[in-house]
Specification:
With about 90 residues, the chain is an all-alpha fold. The protein has a domain at about 1-10 and about 50-89. It has two helices and no strands. The two termini are about 15 Å apart. The relative contact order is 0.14.
Amino acid sequence: MEPKEFTQQAIDFHKAQIDNTFNLVKTIQEQNEKLSKTFIDQLTWLPESERSRINEWAQAWGKIHEDYKKAIDDQLKTIEKVLLGSCGA
């Protein structure tokens, strides 16, 4: 197997693992949000201002997750260029 082909396969494998991990975390996050919302909706004594804060927190977490995933993807592209470039691409 050529070094370039091996390197590409290794990069693709790691990309798939990272994507699978992020998808799993996202699924867990979404389920946690649903469970939390159900729980919070039953807390009739909780002020609306606190409910808003909890919702803002959940939205912020989703944005952080998306930003982190984008940063990882960008770094993987850079790594791919460097490694494949070193294989005589």
